[in-house]
Amino acid sequence: MPDLGKYAVEVLSAYAVSIGLIVAIVLLSLSRARRVKAELDEIENRRKSRG
Questions:
Q1: pLDDT tens digits, the chain, 51 residues: what are they?
Q2: Is residue 12 within 8 Å of 4, Cβ to Cβ?
Q3: In the 3-class helix/strand/coil scheme, how is 1-51 assigned residue by residue?
Q4: pTM reported for the whole predicted model
Q5: Contact by Cβ (8 Å): 26, 34
């Protein structure tokens, strides 16, 4: 790891926050994708049962 000098805490905390936000966005995206897929499947099943 490179020597970050007196700003090591700030730099590492910025990296940690960034990584945490990226992980949160990915998890929220996956959750929303599952929810939307379930809703679309339900709509499709309703249309099939009518027709």
A1: 678 899 999 999 999 999 999 999 999 999 999 999 999 999 999 999 986
A2: yes
A3: CCCCHHHHHHHHHHHHHHHHHHHHHHHHHHHHHHHHHHHHHHHHHHHHHHC
A4: 0.74
A5: no
